[in-house]
Design brief:
Blueprint lengths: L3 E3 L16 E5 L4 H9 L3 E2 L7 E3 L4 E4 L8 H9 L3 E4 L3 H10 L12 H12 L3 E8 L2 E11 L2 E9 L4 H15 L4 E5 L3 H4 L4 E3 L1 H11 L16
Helix pairs in contact: 3-4
Length: about 230
């Protein structure tokens, strides 16, 4: 199948037209309008240098909040209150840490400066959110993503302290479930999220679940007031 080159318009090709590895289109920009259309269409950007690459893999790695699995050891971490979890307390610091955190086996990062600024802009619109894990007043870990309807599109996570990102993810998932969220997009497989309940699902299933979850308005605005138990 051809890889589409995007023009100045905001339209994306059908995700079913993606290459076997999930690559669907190249080009375009990271404007808020294009990013939001991409997420609504089951598409996301992922690249390390220009041009922008747009993906819709099959299968899609995603999670139902009701499928969250918390190990006995993580339950003990949460019960002891090793981390203080907040939402939207410092989105720029979280995305910056995700961008700069060294990950074994990876050279550089896919979070370019343009990506960083694009998601900060979505955060200012009240549509991108962060979850932070604090320890002794320092940012120990966290994650960020985009929210539309009752879907949370996870983008990246980091941990300076063991279990910090897991604590943030588990707490956020519980808060999302309480508010009727039905889908957490994790994009591509990681052992880290598989251990928490994410799974591979056919793209057709993902798109059906996505469409249903987008039928309600987004919970736009700051999530800082959401109380983490």
């Amino acid at each position: 199948m051809p890889v589409y080159r995007l023009g100045p318009g905001l339209a994306f090709p059908d995700p079913a037209e993606a290459e076997p590895d999930g690559l669907l289109a190249v080009g375009g920009d990271l404007s808020a309008e294009r990013l939001l259309l991409a997420y609504r269409s089951g598409i996301f950007p992922w690249y390390s240098r220009p041009p922008i690459l747009w993906w819709s893999p099959d299968p899609r790695f995603a999670m139902l909040p009701s499928d969250l699995r918390v190990s006995k050891s993580m339950r003990q971490v949460l019960r002891r209150g090793e981390f203080r979890i907040t939402l939207d307390r410092d989105f720029p610091a979280v995305i910056r840490a995700c961008r700069t955190r060294h990950r074994p086996g990876q050279q550089g990062t896919w979070i370019t400066s343009g990506m960083e600024q694009a998601y900060i802009a979505l955060h200012r619109l009240g549509l991108a959110h962060s979850a932070e894990a604090w320890q002794d007043g320092q940012l120990a870990g966290g994650l960020y993503g985009v929210s539309l309807g009752r879907v949370f599109f996870g983008e990246s996570m980091f941990a300076h302290v063991s279990n910090a990102s897991k604590a943030a993810f588990i707490t956020l998932t519980g808060l999302l479930a309480e508010r009727g969220f039905t889908l957490i997009d994790s994009q591509v497989y990681t052992d880290h999220l598989a251990s928490l309940g994410a799974r591979q699902m056919p793209r057709t299933e993902y798109l059906e679940r996505l469409a249903a979850a987008l039928e309600v308005p987004a919970l736009q605005g700051s999530w800082a007031g959401w109380t983490a138990s």
